Structure prediction request, 283 residues.
Amino acid sequence: MDSIFTGEARDLVDRSARPQSLIFTIYAAFSRNNGGWFSANSIIQLCDVLEVQEDAARSALARFKRRDILISKKHNGVVGYSVSPQMWKTFDQGDARFFRRRESPVNLGWILIAFSIPEDMREVRYKLRSRLVRIGFAQVTGGLWIAPRQLTDDAIALVRSLNAEKYMNIFSAEHLAFTPTQAAVANWWDLDGIQEVYKSFTKTARPVATYWSSRRSAIDSERAFRDYTKILTNWRYAPYFDPGLPKEFLPKNWAGFTAADTFFNIHDRLAGPALNYVLNLAK
Prediction:
């Protein structure tokens, strides 16, 4: 049977071709330096560099507007889109997750979430379970979920976003008995599946890293923007499935370390030139 992460690993390769995913990345990565706003024409031009057709880009922008992710706003009579207030929180939380070099932490203990959500709120219960997995939690049993303690802020933000506080309790905990902690961790989390996601990312990103590591001449800023945006679009998803477990609980040669090294090699080389390209085009 496929791991629950198998589809995610396969999907990761395709995300960098999706207009919505790419536009989300453009705003998340570059809009702070442009006042949170881009003209519609700038977005269309950037999408063209990313090989996204104009009609697909405009359709994606319209969907973001309907979902209140972007707000239609004019600057000096120019039509464009600004990031909505609630999305800044999402961007800030994301930056803290995927722009942090993931060193394996010491074992600080665990956070437990216990919940009992009424049957007439099944949709909230489904969203909660799905999103707990997507921020790195594992199900111990029934309505009891576990993660390393450093995910406390992520958990609280998730619960508040669903307005589910009165159905939840959050605890800090230590694992005392009876299964050895390493064996329990391997049972709670699908570590092979998480590695599959990381390996999929590395397979996609390594050719880009190899290309740029061999370049000593002046950087082609357009290509830097294209490569960086596509790789970042893929990377944005991978760390969310990884709870950030202490090294003693991980398999040998953990694929997450290789994936992170690959991403940050690309990030360190291309983030600056990519931002300059965007800002010059958006003038």
Summary: The domain at 110-173 is CATH 3.30.70.240 (Alpha-Beta Plaits). The mean pLDDT is 90. The CA atoms of residues 42 and 281 lie 7 Å apart. The beta strands are 37-39, 70-75, 78-83, 110-115, 138-141, 144-148, 168-173.
